[in-house]
User: What shape does this take?
Amino acid sequence: MIWLNTAAAHASTFMPPQGTEIASQYDKLYGFIVIASLISCVLVIGGLVMFALKYKRKSENDKTAYITHDTRLEFAWSFIPFLIFMVVFVWGTYIYLELRTVPKNAFEVHVFGQKWNWDFMYKSGKKSTNEMVVPVNTPIKLIITSRDVLHSFYIPAFRVKQDAVPGRYTKLWFNADKVGDFQVFCAEYCGTNHSRMLAKVKVVSKDDFEKWLQDNPYKDLASADVGQKVYNAKCIACHQLVPEASTSIAPSFLGLFGKTRQFADSTSAQADENYIRESILNSKAKIVKRVSGEAFPPIMPAFAGALSEEELVGLIEYLKTLKE
Amino acid sequence: MSASHAEGKNYLNCEKGLWSWLTTLDHKRIGIMYMITVMVFFAVGGTFAMLIRGELYSAGRNIVGPETYNQFMTFHGAIMVFMVIIPGIPAFLGNFFLPMHLGAKDVAFPRVNLLSWYCLIVGAAISLVSLIYNGVDTGWTFYTPYSIETNNGTTWMVAGAFVMGFSSILTGLNFIVTTHKLRAPGMTFFNMPLFVWALYSTAVLQVLATPVLGITLMLLIAERVLGVGIFDPTLGGDPVLFQHFFWFYSHPAVYIMILPAMGIVSEIITAFSRKVIFGYKAIAFSSVGIAVVSFFVWGHHMFTSGQSEAAGILFSFITMLVGVPTAIKVFNWVATLYKGSVRFDSPMLFALGFLFLFTIGGVTGIMLATAGLDIHFHDTYFVVAHFHYVMVGGTLMAIMGGFYYWLPKMFGRMYNEFWARITFVLIFVGFNVTFFPQFILGAMGMPRRYYDYLPEFQSLNRISSFGAWTIGTGFLIALFVIIHSIRRGEKATSNPWGAKTLEWTTSSPPPHENFLETPVVTGGPYEFR
Ligand code: HEM
Ligand SMILES: [Cu+2]
Ligand SMILES: [Cu+2]
Assistant: This one.
């Protein structure tokens, strides 16, 4: 079995870092299948090349052997692959069940996918966006859902992935054994900014985690600074702080507050507090035109329910500070 | 017999003018119309592929924004699946050669055959209307609820796919009846070429699975237009139900794509090694076996969808079972070469290329069928690489091989062997350069359908883009080789490869009703003694 460990180590060169114990088990199975596949490919492709070259046509009068079948040989090459597939199946099922069976007493975090952010909610009431902080060496259970379309919560370093389905809760668990930051991707196509729906899992020591839970991120912050934090977490993927170009997927926030906005239905309005509030909570109510004259696509999610009053006010105040 | 069988007359020149083509009932002419249609679609889908790879050349924005990219990705996938690979072999090469392989004058229902071509054209036209309504950005899988709320183009694209489904059903129906009813005297089931067995198994899938897709797409349209709430969670529907329906068709559909390719490979390997096929019955029955089992594995696309663990384990197990008949076929082809007399003309190069690439596609399929492993690989570039190894490395290589193999028969002219081999080298090498790095990208964790990616994925994406442009060049040259051959190629004899199946017993190109006299069959299709 030593060869298996070395093989697994080689095969997993390209795998993401192993952030959990199961990830290393996963890589062993992966290593085994890669080696088994390599051997099969060498046998099949090697046999193919060898026969093709050895029996290359010498003259147009070549006689060939008349071999129609060979029952024993055919049985062997049906049964041996079957056995290998069954080994892989049983081993794979074992890993699958490990990945899917949540230990009792796991620490629970609620996860919400919403175009194109990940929101996290802890039982203490603490919330975060695109950064999930969890304690090391603790089984963590994620209870996942979506506020709009399908998404999929994918942490490569933990070898786990689970779709976020609107209208239902799905689950995922892991037990991170290393402190550090791990990448999260959205793995189920969800529209325009699918590829920017990224987040981080921050695995910290248990003490740091307790501190983090107690910490109120908005404590002692001015309204506009609260707004800036929310902006960086939830708006930045689409609304950039550079002058708007014809290729921008969403309006720029520079100098937005107070400007007269032209809408797709040819009406216009001034961007005051009420307009900003409505745009955040229900963006489809008024669709703005681009500098080029056509309307922006109506892709912005409605944030009603996803932002607190403090955060809304913060955003409005923050927008006021952004000058062209 | 009629005057059209006089000296020098064949199916191509017995009638003239565009109208004679658009109203033809000759299976060979309908096959040629499918050929042209599929080539046009392939050029469009291929152009989208080149644009996709252009955009993915570097991280960040290169040529278009995310919305346009998502449309490229959707049109590429939908066109390649519904308009190229699914009709590619059955409706083009199958239409032309299934009746000839059986010694028949035509398919059982020539009018239905023509109707199926019109279904494809009308369906494609309806899909195009989507461009007027801001296009489609759902991916070819149309997953709900995103497909319910996005651009109105989606309705048209889905309606187009619905109509194209009938094309597939009608072709399948025709092939089943033709195989049962129109075999020449002496053509028993076990005297049929393996291409016929493959097309027959495919036809069963087309007839039984495609209606499920039709119903699903209809429900999606009803959902979008009438708001019925079957899939939309805000109306009490279940978005995961859509995935079950969709894959209940689309998994058998991947066998609609690959089984006929396997049939072509059986023909080419025997002809170019001049040897009886090894394990005829094993290959024939494994086609049927694959067709049956492929109805019960759809859940392997849904390991992370929230389906129960019990379902996940069951689907993983049944998927492993499909691996067995698939492996048997590969071993049989390799064994056929043993003690043969092998020539390396381009059709054979493509068939050997198929074996090479399909083997890699197959073993990675087993990795994905392993429930525990698929959790990490699902919806990453690993999957993109896998299905391209099967669909492009498998099906498309077989189409190219079959095209060169039967070109002399279809048009009575030879192609330029040197340039045809160049296309093989470019396509084969380019293919591996494009898609092998995608296995690594997937293992590293890069999700699919990504407009933009992290910097660490860039170097492999670049290699992949260069590979794609190599493939593109290969196909462009192949187009010239084919056009040149049809217009200026040397005259072909009736059996340039020395193959044994019935189509080679008649002149090239064949006369209007294929054979001047109905052939009488006395033995198997590969009697090289
Ligand atoms: C020149 C050869 C080709 C290249 C370079 C190419 C490249 C690509 C790329 C880059 C993607 C996008 C992956 C993603 O982000 O999901 C893709 C998707 C896809 N390709 Fe190809 N492709 C080629 C040929 C084909 C062919 C011949 C088929 C025929 C079946 C095909 C079927 C698909 C499918 C079904 C998808 C998935 C589309 C989706 O995710 O909705 N491709 N291809
Ligand atoms: Cu997404
Ligand atoms: Cu499948």
